[in-house]
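About this split. The held-out portion is used to measure sequence recovery: a designer receives only the structure tokens and must propose an amino acid at every position. Recovery is the fraction of positions where the proposal matches the reference. Here is one held-out target exactly as it appears in the evaluation file.
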């Protein structure tokens, strides 16, 4: 009948001490190396809301709603469009250090657009999405994200204005 005394556990810990110390030391050394040698990267994001115009189902001959995939594609195409990215590159001074096409490619590679999905049972009054930008400095990440959001809103407003004028002209012609 083997009975263990609490001091037996202490002796086991003393004999196997390196089984506990080695992993802790290895983890600390690895973490210090990663912090030292990995590049720093900052990410900021802006949340935007887009309300889609409600159209009469009679006018469209369909249900009048646009699918989530179509809305995501439309928003992503606008955010990644060449005029939007060129304007951001010019206004943030990227073209001073590189060609405009290279600046557009750089910005495009660092931008992420994601739709915010409502939770089940929750209705959203408008589509919400985030525009995120990564950079090596927090100030630049924040400035470019804000600029992207501003330019996106202006470009979307301009497109809607053009679409409304075209629709008005078409309806006027039909009448």
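Reference sequence for scoring:
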């Amino acid at each position: 009948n083997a009975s263990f005394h609490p001091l037996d556990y202490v002796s086991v810990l003393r004999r196997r001490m390196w089984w506990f110390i080695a992993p802790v030391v290895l983890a600390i050394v690895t973490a210090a190396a990663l912090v030292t040698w990995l590049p720093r990267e900052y990410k900021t994001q802006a949340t935007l809301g887009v309300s889609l115009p409600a159209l009469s189902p009679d006018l469209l001959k369909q249900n009048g709603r646009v699918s989530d995939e179509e809305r995501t594609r439309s928003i992503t195409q606008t955010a990644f469009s060449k005029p939007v990215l060129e304007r951001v590159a010019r206004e943030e001074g990227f073209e001073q250090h590189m060609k405009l096409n290279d600046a557009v490619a750089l910005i495009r590679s660092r931008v992420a657009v994601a739709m915010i999905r409502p939770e089940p049972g929750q209705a959203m009054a408008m589509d919400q999405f985030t525009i995120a930008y990564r950079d090596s400095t927090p100030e630049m990440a924040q400035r470019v994200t804000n600029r992207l959001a501003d330019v996106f809103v202006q470009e979307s407003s301009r497109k809607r204005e053009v679409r409304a004028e075209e629709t008005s002209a078409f309806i006027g012609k039909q009448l």
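Annotator remark: The longest helix spans residues 138-174.
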